[in-house]
Design goal:
alpha+beta; six-stranded antiparallel β-barrel
Length: 291
């Protein structure tokens, strides 16, 4: 039995096509096949924080094209060769004796030996729309923190973001979802946040003003057109990756992130937020983008 190695991921470059070597190809419990290759341009959905959807695309084998119906994080136990997918993964990353891999799910049952070569092809248009949405979420959260920093905190908050502003986003966020040209963040405005110093009642009364100021800030950043870089500490799926962008005064902002992203703020023709007030304790910020 050949030894499975951690999948090398190519989506941070980004790269949308790759010729790859098969490491595992086994029947999937839900039908079709689980396909694991030595490298891939596909971004899988995370089993821990599934905010960024999996890429779509296809695998080409001997001139035959098969749809990749899903793409997941997987882990292989080296001693047994057993593959665990998604929420069935029983260990944390970097656990000795295990390797983490990208698992492509094909609805068509494949029969491929280890060492076979395949062509992996990502739906570039969809991935780029997801990338705009995800980078847009980072930008809007930073703009939100900046707008709230001076006027809506009655005392010093201990946690600050990468720009030195009180980190409302990190304190209050309960859920994030990335979709094509969109990022949706849900915030809880509860008792804990008020104790930390947020004037939440004032925020709700002035929500339209906050929305306008955020969009003004986003437009300034968009027109500046700064580059976005993904700094990778390694090529493996579980190696840390960081979103980097110089937003103001030459200061490099760096946010840990495993998603896919744009290459420049000049890639946007639009980026703007709108708020949805669910209740006095729940607020949703929707970031909409366009290329």
């Amino acid at each position: 039995m050949s030894v499975v190695t951690p999948t090398q991921v190519l989506f941070a470059q980004p790269q949308w096509q790759a010729r790859a070597e098969v490491q595992l190809c086994i029947p999937a419990e839900c039908g079709g096949s689980w396909l694991v290759t030595d490298k891939t341009p596909f971004h899988p959905v995370s089993h821990i924080w599934p905010d960024h959807p999996a890429d779509h695309g296809s695998v080409v084998i001997n001139d035959h094209c098969y749809e990749v119906a899903g793409c997941y994080t997987g882990a292989v136990e080296l001693a047994s060769g057993n593959l665990f997918v998604g929420k069935d993964i029983p260990v944390k990353r970097d656990t000795e004796g295990w390797v983490f891999v990208v698992v492509h799910h094909t609805e068509h049952a494949l029969e491929l030996a280890a060492g076979s070569l395949v062509e992996l092809d990502v739906d570039k248009v969809r991935q780029q729309a997801l990338s705009r949405g995800h980078s847009g979420g980072h930008l809007s959260s930073l703009a939100l923190n900046k707008v709230l920093h001076h006027d809506f905190w009655r005392k010093d908050a201990s946690r600050k973001d990468e720009m030195g502003h009180y980190d409302f986003h990190s304190y209050a966020q309960t859920e994030s979802r990335v979709s094509e040209d969109c990022s949706t963040d849900t915030y809880r405005l509860g008792k804990t946040l008020r104790k930390r110093g947020l004037n939440s009642a004032d925020l709700l009364q002035r929500l339209d003003e906050v929305e306008t100021r955020i969009n003004q800030q986003l437009e300034i950043w968009r027109q500046a057109g700064a580059a976005v870089v993904m700094r990778c500490e390694g090529k493996a799926l579980t190696d840390s990756r960081y979103w980097q962008c110089e937003l103001e005064g030459g200061v490099l902002i760096e946010i840990p992130c495993g998603g896919t992203h744009i290459g420049s703020l000049a890639d946007y023709s639009k980026i703007a937020v709108e708020f949805q007030l669910v209740s006095e304790q729940e607020l949703i910020m929707v970031t909409k983008t366009a290329g």
